[in-house]
Amino acid sequence: MEVEKEMNSSSGRRDSALRILRCQESLKDMYTDSNIFHESKSTSQIQLQDVKRGSVIGRGTFGQVRSLTSLLFTHETSLTQASSGNSMNSIDDNVVEEGNSQSSNDPMSDISSPQKYVLKEIRGSILNQGDATAVEAAAIDLARESRFLQLLSRHENIISVYSTGGCEGSRNFFILMEKINKTLDDLIQGEWKFLQKNIGSIAVQKYLKEQVSDQQHDFDLSKTSKDLKREATNNFLLLRLQIIEGIASGLSFLHEHKDVKSSNIGISSEGVPIIFDFGLARELKDKDRVDEEGNYKLTKMVGSFRYMSPEAYKGEPYGLASDVHSFSLLFYEALALEKPFHRIHPLRFQRAVFEKKKRPKINKSVPKDIRQLLERGWHPEPMNRPSAKQIGDFVKTYIAINK
Q1: DSSP character for 100?
Q2: Any idea what the Cα angle at residue 196 is, between residues 303 and 228, rounded to 5°?
Q3: Is the pLDDT of residue 286 over 50?
Q4: Nearest to 83, CA basis, from 35, 34, 163, 150
Q5: Is the pLDDT higher at 268 or at 49?
Q6: Which residue has the higher pLDDT, 90 or 353?
Q7: Angstrom distance (rounded) from CA 158 to CA 162
Q8: Which of 43, 208, 216, 231 has the most C-beta neighbours closer than 10 Å?
């Protein structure tokens, strides 16, 4: 209905055309001096009538996520997981690719299961408030996120995008992607807190052993309750470290994702951690580099306040180490089962964290080498932090040794 209203007026058509043009100019900037975006074949698109929208199941600053009630293909459309390349198409290049055969293992070939996928679009409240500037900002944000997803979603720890619909920059543009049923925050607040509370239960101890063991082993009831609880505590740590290792792998692949927080990490039905929501992602380009330590001239205060690095908060040049700082606080959250700095009053937060450099207190029950890794990860000086890959490699080795 909103799209029809816009297109039925000459002013609406003019505003729409200008917004699409400005969006295309913004996208071209992504390709200028880029080391990752290149001209190549675009991912397939589906027509608006091919998708029947369901209810809104999630909202962000600019976008919202909807469930699907059905996928009705009126054309033979090739819908496959996005490849690493995509092109800068003209604003009229918005047609469905026809005549392409689908791969037998194409996840989108199972069109009878729309519940496996979601649609991300511009937030309804932005479209309805009548602020043309806000609509344009949201449209550009979604289009840029789409380009990043099409480039990066081939990694198992990055959300998969399968197609787009509508024209980039238009009010009805959307991204078709895999559905995430729960976030890491849900996992922490639900299953993990339950397991922690009931760590002395034989049923929980059996469950934890099954989750972290490579092979099936009989549960040894001849052990003392103290030994069983000690083993379960170790297995619970390994269970969480497996998730952390996956996030580190995805983050290492991304190189740059400025909104690392538990509500932006999803968990697949197979228990695999998935990084999603790329509205804040951007490439670190050589032209923006300001020193040899890997810092770049970027925007101030990007990301979530609680997880933000000191250099990002202060508006200083920052780079990949800023993500490591945020990730280390997320790592802490997975171990402590609580938000970092949750006891600090919001009015005292900036002074305590960014001026006095307060950091979370790690429980002594956490192994010393992991405590030291966390402390290095959120070190005030970016150059003293390890890389995401180094954290991932350390965690992977720790799991292998302590299974």
Answers
A1: P
A2: 140
A3: no
A4: 150
A5: 268
A6: 353
A7: 13
A8: 43
| Helix %, strand %, coil % of the chain (to 5) | 45, 10, 40
Angle at 177 between CA 174 and CA 183, to 5 degrees: 115
Q: Is 112 helix (H, G, I), strand (E, B) or coil?
A: coil
CB 96, CB 143: distance < 8 Å: no
Domains delineated in the chain: 2-179 (3.30.200.20), 183-402 (1.10.510.10)
> pLDDT digit string (tens) for 11-38?
678 888 888 898 888 878 777 777 666 6
- Tell me the residue type at 250: G
Q: How far apart are CA 59 and CA 82, in angstroms?
A: 23
Residues 249, 337, 363: CA angle, nearest 5 degrees: 95
Of 23-37, 51-65, 78-92, give the lowest mean pLDDT range. Answer: 78-92
* Model confidence, pTM: 0.79
For 377-382, the CB contacts below 8 A with 24+ separation are: 377/324, 377/325, 377/327, 377/328, 377/331, 378/325, 378/328, 378/329, 378/332, 379/325, 380/310, 382/293, 382/295, 382/309, 382/311, 382/318, 382/319, 382/321, 382/322, 382/325
Do residues 279 and 343 lie in contact, with contact meaning Cβ atoms separated by under 8 Å? no
Say whether pLDDT at 66 is over 70.
yes
Q: Residue written as tokens 């509500």?
A: 263
Residue 121: per-residue pLDDT: 95
Question: Regarding beta strands 273-275 and 117-122, do their DSSP bridges make them parallel or antiparallel, or are they unpaired?
Answer: unpaired
